[in-house]
């Protein structure tokens, strides 16, 4: 019995088992693998109360992950077919998105989760679900609710993704995006708007960017690792500067995007001569690929350790190149994705970065691969993305 006092008949006890890494740091390596338990107790009034410790489970785009949740009900002879399990995603704005509902043998999936979510079924009292082929949009906070005829209670699990945050502005220039446009440009670059937690983690890893950008909760922030007068005064402390929540329609800023593991490969196309933008597009197509997006290049740099000291076209007509190991004549002493701006499409000549999806053959048919990511460059600090005017 996990409760500290007797439970009345019909009471449902939910236990959310949180595995993996946690929002708060743990003191020893042994503690890092320790799970946390949510105890649901009954107070003197008969109401159900929750005592919980925050935590998260971590995966990557394209992977599978278990959102753990367990329950216990009294009496033990209660009909399991009367137990209702419901999973919901909760946004920062307290908007609830239905994910999964089960009542006995009946189950229902919702929206983009159809065909990707199933019960783990790891013995009696297990309400855990498995999300397959995880997407960027799956990132966030989930609620597990267990109900019987008399009582109900909930627990929460945070789903985090391995990936990389990058600042972005379009060809039209800086501070040109309202919130909805910022959402769109991140999606166009194979990414989503970053959360505050993701931006803060990137700042801890060294991200320094002196232009404010939208985050997914509608706030506007920017990370400063090296305080200076042109970025909010030199005598202020380093940190993530916050403009607060801004008007999503009227105000204009840049964007901070987040992307994760690639189902494919970014590579620099070797050619004898440099090309303009339209020639670059054709060259990638002839090679069985497409021109890489900015988010794909950042993911290849951070996760696949792509290191190339040659500037090349990307899909948004920007010129960038990824540096894992800084060296002379490669854009400065820090690792990062160098950005050379948005040059003339016709007359400026560069190389090109292409993207090719993973494919594998199954029973003679070609399907997309779901292989996991390569070794991550977690030890590489994210520093200022260099910019030079062309």
Automatic annotation (TrEMBL):
Molecular-function GO terms, alphabetical: hyaluronic acid binding
Keyword Glycoprotein: yes
Pfam families documented for this protein: V-set (PF07686), Xlink (PF00193)
Positions of disulphide bridges: 210-231, 309-330
InterPro entries, sorted: C-type_lectin-like/link_sf, CTDL_fold, Hyaluronan_bind_Proteoglycan, Ig-like_dom, Ig-like_dom_sf, Ig-like_fold, Ig_sub, Ig_sub2
GO cellular component: extracellular space; perineuronal net; synapse
UniProt keywords, alphabetically: Disulfide bond, Extracellular matrix, Glycoprotein, Hyaluronic acid, Immunoglobulin domain, Repeat, Secreted, Signal
Disordered: region residues: 365-390
Stored Gene3D superfamilies: Immunoglobulins, Mannose-Binding Protein A, subunit A
SMART domains: IG, IGc2, IGv, LINK
Record domain Link: where: 164-259, 264-356
Signal peptide residue numbers: 1-30
Major site of localization recorded for this protein: secreted
Domain Ig-like: 47-160
Subcellular location: Secreted, Extracellular space, Extracellular matrix
Annotated GO biological process: cell adhesion; central nervous system development; glial cell differentiation; positive regulation of neuroblast proliferation; skeletal system development
UniProt family annotation: Belongs to the HAPLN family.
Function description: Essential for the proper localization of brevican (BCAN), mainly as a perineuronal nets (PNNs)-type deposition in the brainstem and cerebellum thereby playing a key role in the formation and structural organization of PNNs. Contributes to the formation and transmission of inhibitory GABAergic synapses between Purkinje cells and deep cerebellar nuclei neurons.
UniProt-recorded name of the protein: Hyaluronan and proteoglycan link protein 4
């Amino acid at each position: 019995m996990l409760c500290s006092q007797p439970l009345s008949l019909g009471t449902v006890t939910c236990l959310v088992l949180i595995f993996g890494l946690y929002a708060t740091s743990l003191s020893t390596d042994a503690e890092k693998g320790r799970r946390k338990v949510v105890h649901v107790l009954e107070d003197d009034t008969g109401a159900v109360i929750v005592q919980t410790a925050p935590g998260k489970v971590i995966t990557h785009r394209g992977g599978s992950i278990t959102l753990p949740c367990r329950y216990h009900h009294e009496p033990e002879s209660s009909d399991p077919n009367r137990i209702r399990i419901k999973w919901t995603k909760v946004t920062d704005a307290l908007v609830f998105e239905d994910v999964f509902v089960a009542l006995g043998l009946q189950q229902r999936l919702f929206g983009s989760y159809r065909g990707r979510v199933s019960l783990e079924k790891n013995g009696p009292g297990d309400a855990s679900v498995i999300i397959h082929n995880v997407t960027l949009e799956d990132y966030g906070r989930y609620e597990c609710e267990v109900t019987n005829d008399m009582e109900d209670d909930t627990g929460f699990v945070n789903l985090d993704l391995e990936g990389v945050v990058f600042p972005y502005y379009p060809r039209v220039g800086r501070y040109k995006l309202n919130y909805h446009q910022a959402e769109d440009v991140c999606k166009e670059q194979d990414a989503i708007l970053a959360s505050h937690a993701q931006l803060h983690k990137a700042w801890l890893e060294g991200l320094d960017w002196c232009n404010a950008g939208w985050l997914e909760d509608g706030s506007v922030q920017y990370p400063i690792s090296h305080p200076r007068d042109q970025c909010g005064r030199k005598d202020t402390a380093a940190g993530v500067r916050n403009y607060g929540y801004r008007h999503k329609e009227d105000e204009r800023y840049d964007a901070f995007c987040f992307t994760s593991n690639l189902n494919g490969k970014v590579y620099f196309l070797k050619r004898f001569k440099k090309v303009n933008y339209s020639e670059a597009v054709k060259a990638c197509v002839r090679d069985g690929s497409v021109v890489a997006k900015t988010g794909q290049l950042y993911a290849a740099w951070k996760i696949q350790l792509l290191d190339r000291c040659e500037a090349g076209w990307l899909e948004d007509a920007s010129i960038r190149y990824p540096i894992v190991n800084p060296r002379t004549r490669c854009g400065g002493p820090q690792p990062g994705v160098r950005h050379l701006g948005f040059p003339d499409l016709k007359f400026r000549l560069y190389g090109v970065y292409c993207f090719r999806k993973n494919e594998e053959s199954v029973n003679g048919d070609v399907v997309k691969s779901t292989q996991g990511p390569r070794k991550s460059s977690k030890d590489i600090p994210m520093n200022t993305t260099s910019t030079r005017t062309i």
